[in-house]
Amino acid sequence: MAVVLAVVLTTLYWPTGRPTPLSPLALQLEGLRADNGLFYRPALAASAAPSLAETAYADQVLALTGQRPPALAPGALPPTELTGAAVWNRWYLNRIARATGVPSTALAPERIRAALQPGGYLEDGAAADWSRLATTAAGLEVLADNNIPVDEPARARISGWLAARAAELTNPYQACTLRTASRALGLTEPATVRAQAESWWQRIGRSLDGLPGDEAVLDVYGFACLTGRSPQAPRLLGVLRAELGQDMDAFRAFHLAATWRELGGDAAALAPLTRLLAGRRLPNGMVAAKDRRIGTIDSALAVTEIRALAGLDGDDRLLVTGVDELAGQAELDPATLAKAALTRRATGQADSDLDRRALIALSGAVPPEISGDAAARWVNLRRLQLRLAPDLPLPRLTDWRPTGREERLTAWQVLGLTGDAAPPGLRAELATLPGLLDRDAGALSLRELRAGVQALRRNNISVPATAVQRAVAATKGCPAQPELYRPEPTATDCDLSATADALWLTANP
Fold it and tell me: Do the Cβ atoms of 336 and 326 come closer than 8 Å?
């Protein structure tokens, strides 16, 4: 496989002659190249393996046509699927149980409860608010479906966080997800939810003539979720019909099928989707992942950072094409726009118009004040903003003290970005940070280690380098990508962001 990949890369990038052979790291990164020119997560590389997520989505497609999927055979579920993502894997198991009629014995609601953060959302690895919203809705749905109560203090925290998201909706899929979370918690639907359907229809839906990416499918899915068999349904069914015979993964197939049925489409028209997914059904009832990957801008940006830190060539015409296709979409959130601009810059082909669009979008999205509630969102957006325009002034800083591990990480990140400007409560973290890194570095994730080291370096405090470097070394390698890094020593899959963190830590001892 490595030999074939090297030959393909030579033809693709260097048509006039063979270049210097790619390093093992560069080859492993290219092995994650997606069809759209971007990159996908290393965990998806084993594409022929049975996939819990694909099984859940494929089973739901069958259920939407009135068919009962086969039950999973004993031992069919890989053990890693039970120890991985706490919330999403439980959601997949729950959806499989609903479709097959066979209750799951592995839902482990305590793992869902443990994912609740002090801020009022469920955390399963994603740091963006809208990813957290989807995770929160998924976890609450599992608990509600299985009559597992949410205690009153947790309910109050989640309700407050959902109310804040209700004021920030920008598309119908977000609105549908918020509705799902609210209903699962027994809350009244926020008044802002239905407005997203009308807004999307006027801006995009009325002239929609295709569904070029998953974002477009999710928008239509969200619209159907909010409006059902509305007067607009016949037109949207016409757009959907052209998609049903295409090749796709089970994620896209489920959202198309669910949208089709919600809009009033006939179940018989979904036969092409059921045939497609039946071809990937394994004898044990699991469904194999599709051998085609759509890359993400997050993975692409991480690859550019890895290349820069490892001294690899950043020139990448395929990546530029993929970024341009993404940036050409009408509706992109500020973070995605900024990541697209930064990824293009990293290839040596900056786009001033894209940079300007990203900065304008970020200026309206970055919270004007750094407080405990807004700190994580501020960190995520501010880091992008500073990479595009390093001289931007700091906003107001409100003093606060972290109370949990996730808040502690955010505090370290804020200290790394603000230095002496941080208020006393936050700066108090600096007194214990060196000792914590020296003592517990091996128990921290690479993301935490990088944040801690950046906080110390920004504030001119000595870093316990030996402990940090020992912890970094313990995370290197996984079977398919020995040059990449895992997020923490106990993880089984490598990760691109973790690899960038490891290389940064190695370069900044």
Answer: yes
Identify whether the C-beta of residue 182 lies closer than 8 Å to the C-beta of residue 190.
yes
How many Cβ atoms are within 10 Å of 403's Cβ, its own excluded? Answer: 12
**95 residue type, one letter:** R
pTM over 0.90: no
According to the 3-state scheme, what is the secondary structure of 433-458?
HHHHHHHHHHHCCHHHHHHHHHHHHH
Q: Where are the alpha helices (DSSP H) in 351-404?
A: 352-363, 375-388
Chain-centroid distance, C-alpha 338: 16
For the chain, the 3-state helix, strand and coil shares in percent, each to the nearest 5, are 60, 5, 40
What Cα–Cα distance (Å) separates residue 315 from each residue in 7, 10, 17, 345, 348? 18, 14, 16, 10, 6
CA distance 165 to 368: 17
Partners of 281 in the beta sheet? 287
* Averaged pLDDT for residues 186-195: 91
Task: Kindly indicate the confidence band of residue 424, based on its pLDDT and cuts at 50, 70 and 90.
Answer: confident
- Burial letters 468-481, b for 16+ CB under 10 A, else e: bbebbeebbebeeb
Contact 93, 104 (CB under 8 A): yes
200 contacts 171 by C-beta, under 8 angstroms:
yes
Are the C-beta atoms of residues 445 and 461 closer than 8 Å to each other?
Answer: no
Residue 164 three-state SS:
helix
